[in-house]
Amino acid sequence: MAAIRTGLFFLLILIFPPRAVAVASPAAPRPIPPKFHLHFTDDLDYHLLHKAIQESLHYLRQRPATAEFPLGTLSCTGKHLIRSLVFFDHLIASRPSPQLLSLELATFFDIYKAAGREHINPPGTMLVTGYYQPVFQGSLVRKTPFLYPLYAIPGNLVLRRNHKAASVQPGRFQGGHFTPYWTREEIESRGYAKGSELVWLKDPFDAYLLHIQGSGLIRLRDGSLRGIHYAMKNGRPYTSIGKFMVRTGKITLKEAGINTIRQYLVDHPTELHEILYTNQSFIFFQWTEGHDAVGNLGRPLTRGRSIAVDQHCFPSGGLAFLQSRKPVSTRRNEQQWMALNRFVLAQDTGSAIRGPGRVDLFWGTGKQAGQVAGKMKETGTLFFLLLKKEFL
What we know:
- This protein has helices spanning about 45-60, 80-90, 100-110, 185-190, 205-215, 240-245, 260-265, 270-275, 365-375, and strands at about 20-25, 70, 75, 110-115, 125-135, 135-140, 150, 160, 165-175, 175-180, 195-200, 215-220, 225-235, 285-290, 305-310, 320-330, 335-350, 360-365, 375-385.
- It is of the alpha+beta class.
- The strands form four sheets. An eight-stranded mixed beta sheet has the order 1-4-19-16-17-15-18-5, with helices on both faces. Strands 7-11-6-12-13-14 form a six-stranded mixed beta sheet, with helices on one face. Strands 8-9-10 form a three-stranded antiparallel beta sheet, with no helix packed on it.
- β12 and β13 form a beta hairpin.
């Protein structure tokens, strides 16, 4: 799934400052930063925070207690993550003031600052974007105007286990040899996934957006609503079509966004395939039982609380604190920005979310969530919270 944005926030002095350790990818360790003081105030309802915590706990309790999760160059166990979440959930149950909660967190928790993007100052600066669950009209049969399919996993896709990397690689057999699966262009132009169609949409860019967002809702012709979710990818590398369009002068960096890209494709229909095919990555889908967006932990995402990060750098299901800013529309429909300051849970990942300097905030379902998510491209900071070992 998807993206990231944020603005740096003010820090207030507490009586007991938390200990801070830089979090970095194993290939790019960073030095421990100087001591700093965090003011933990939250701009969302704690009810959603409690819900998100329960989803992380459900996932973690299915894993061995001794399972190791990365935290930059460090690691923590599933048991440690569970104890941290349970302890934190107990703290917020009484709805403490920001001042009291900040003091409690400084006392009971270690605070780890994400290393952020390389060569960007100040150190720890993240790129914060947003993603959402779209709702599109669709049909279970191919009939005009529903001509653009989303596919289930095709029968000719096979998985090869890479024991050294503890992962699986999608591919296919050709002449008795395992080879990479076809690219987006090959799949769509040569029909290599034909027969695996799940549903047809009206617009090719709508179908492409579902590949980027990872899940969505389909309003079928009979009025019913069905959820669709990521099942597998072709294993080819992800390339941002927005970056391609900026690099080739089709749009400017300042203009780059979902709405701008969509309008460009409407105005230049002959360039549609050239642009979309620059991204070789291709997603296959499956129907879901409910209507919730589902992250890579297999649990429902919570709007405003779930984030996508690189889980090779950060712990799956882990508790974090995000500082950034968010777009807000005024009564006159003018665009303004407000501080974004909240606790979040690492419950998703995405092809474009790589390294310790990316975080993608889930904004919810539907058009309004999409409008906000599409505007998010900010700088910010991210802090992970772990219960101090003496309180385990």
